[in-house]
Amino acid sequence: MKEPKQYEITGLGLSGTQYTVEQTGTDKNFRPEYEARDVTGDTIFRCTYNMYEEKDELPFVDADGDELFTVKASETWDIAGDYLLTDSQTGEDIVVLDNDFSLFQDTWRIRDAEDESLIAEINSRGALFTVGRKILPVGQWIGHRFKVTDPEGNSVGTIESGFAVFDQYEITIRDRSSVPVDPVLAGAVVIDAIQEN
């Protein structure tokens, strides 16, 4: 397996272990907008979910509006499928995010874009919370809690949100040596955008 640093996105330069990803609202076309920040409050990237295009696409830009990377669905309206993360500065495909759609558990895998080896997994908490979020009238306001695990299944971090109209996730990666942070942050946006919209 490649080292986590080999999955870093050019231009991000992340070195911390705690980050915030927030849905900040919608643009004039009602497309969800997101922002990621470090512990000092500095913007790492912004993103608008283009769900009205031929294929779902999420272009991620820095604070100056320069494109850092993109995540594109392999199929049109791909609720459960593959999403390819490509570094915009190098043109290199870095990872694939894939999801097996389930009413009871959200399981996302981060895989190597070339050999499809497992890099990390993001799993939602128990079935009652997952079902509640999907079927209750105010279910979308129930907080998320995901566990991040390494390829061996060891817990290395969490992605958590509280009760809110717009989701705000606190992301903690305790072991940067076994899981790359960049794709996990991107994954938090993709999971929220795809499953909430």
UniProtKB/TrEMBL annotation:
Pfam name, any one: LOR
- The identity of this protein, by name, is Uncharacterized protein
Could you read off the lineage of the organism from its UniProt record? Archaea, Methanobacteriati, Methanobacteriota, Stenosarchaea group, Halobacteria
